[in-house]
């Protein structure tokens, strides 16, 4: 998977919003993680995969020219159909932040990230009337559980991950059997695309979907 990481400024605004949201959820306890170890997350990969694959039908429905990507016009139609009332600027921010390979089109893995980010950002602290309405309880539960996984890794509760967080999480289950340094380093590098030593929820999502292998059993063009 290619990553267009050259222009980090286009991610800054959205990543800051996500960071604040994660801090808010961690402090309020609304996103409290039920995970006790990294192994407990890995064991859930099959359920994550099943839950996210439900989005394939929505993606194909709005990929009107069947070219494997959703352009801005198709995305606007999709968001309108899902009754997501976002400003033009918000849609553009999301599009640019999720179009990681700079192809000017949203591929399936990017579409999953985009909807999960919308779900998280529209998730209300108090009033459920403003929440993102999802037809699939399984998909909603999947997004909530992915947030839990991130919060489990975010040990200091600052809304982003650092290498120390990841090492601590990987060694938490068996402190007497520590993960090799190369393993923790590799896992962190897979998430830290812009190499700034911090991992936003957006970066985590892309890496997480890759680990789960959402596209591994589907015939898709190489990205």
Structure in words:
The protein is globular and about 45 Å long. It is mostly helical. The chain has helices spanning 9-28, 38-42, 45-53, 55-62, 72-81, 88-98, 108-122, 137-153, 163-172, 181-191, 201-212; strands at residues 161-162, 198-199. It has a two-stranded antiparallel ribbon with strand order 1-2. Helix 1 crosses helix 6 (88-98). It has one domain: EF-hand (Recoverin, domain 1, Orthogonal Bundle). The chain contains eleven helices and two strands, in the order ααααααααβααβα.
Outline the fold blueprint.
Elements: H1 9-28, H2 38-42, H3 45-53, H4 55-62, H5 72-81, H6 88-98, H7 108-122, H8 137-153, E1 161-162, H9 163-172, H10 181-191, E2 198-199, H11 201-212
Antiparallel strand pairs: 1-2
What is the number of independent domains?
Answer: 1
Overall 3D shape = globular
**Total strand count, please?**
2
Helical percent range? 55-70%
**Percentage of β-strand residues:** under 5%
- What is the CATH architecture annotation? Orthogonal Bundle
Query: Which class in CATH terms?
Result: Mainly Alpha
Structural class: mainly alpha
* Straight-line distance between termini: 6 Å
CATH topology name: Recoverin, domain 1
Largest sheet entry: 2 strands, antiparallel
Model regions low in confidence, pLDDT < 50 over at least 5 residues:
1-6, 125-131, 217-223
Rg, rounded, reads 17 Å
In what order do the strands lie side by side in the largest sheet? Answer: 1-2
CATH homologous group name = EF-hand
Average pLDDT taken over every residue: 79
Write the H/E string, N to C. Answer: HHHHHHHHEHHEH
């Amino acid at each position: 998977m290619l990553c267009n990481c050259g222009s980090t400024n286009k991610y800054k605004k959205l990543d800051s919003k996500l960071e604040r949201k994660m801090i808010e959820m961690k402090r309020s306890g609304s996103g409290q993680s039920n995970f006790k170890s990294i192994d407990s997350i890995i064991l859930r990969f099959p359920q994550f995969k099943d839950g996210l694959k439900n989005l394939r039908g929505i993606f194909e429905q709005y990929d009107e020219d069947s070219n494997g990507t959703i352009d801005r016009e198709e995305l606007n139609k999709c968001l309108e159909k899902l009754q997501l009332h976002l400003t033009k600027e918000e849609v553009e921010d999301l599009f640019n932040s999720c179009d990681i390979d700079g192809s000017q089109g949203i591929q399936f893995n990017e579409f999953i990230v985009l909807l999960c980010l919308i779900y998280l950002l529209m998730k209300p602290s108090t009033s459920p009337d403003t929440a993102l309405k999802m037809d699939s309880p399984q998909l909603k539960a999947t997004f909530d559980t992915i947030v839990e996984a991130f919060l489990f890794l975010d040990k200091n509760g600052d809304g982003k991950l650092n290498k120390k967080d990841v090492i601590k999480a990987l060694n938490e289950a068996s402190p007497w059997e520590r993960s090799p340094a190369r393993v923790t380093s590799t896992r962190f590098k897979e998430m830290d695309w812009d190499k700034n030593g911090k991992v936003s929820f957006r970066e985590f999502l892309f890496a997480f979907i890759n680990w789960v292998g959402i596209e591994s059993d589907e015939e898709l063009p190489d990205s």
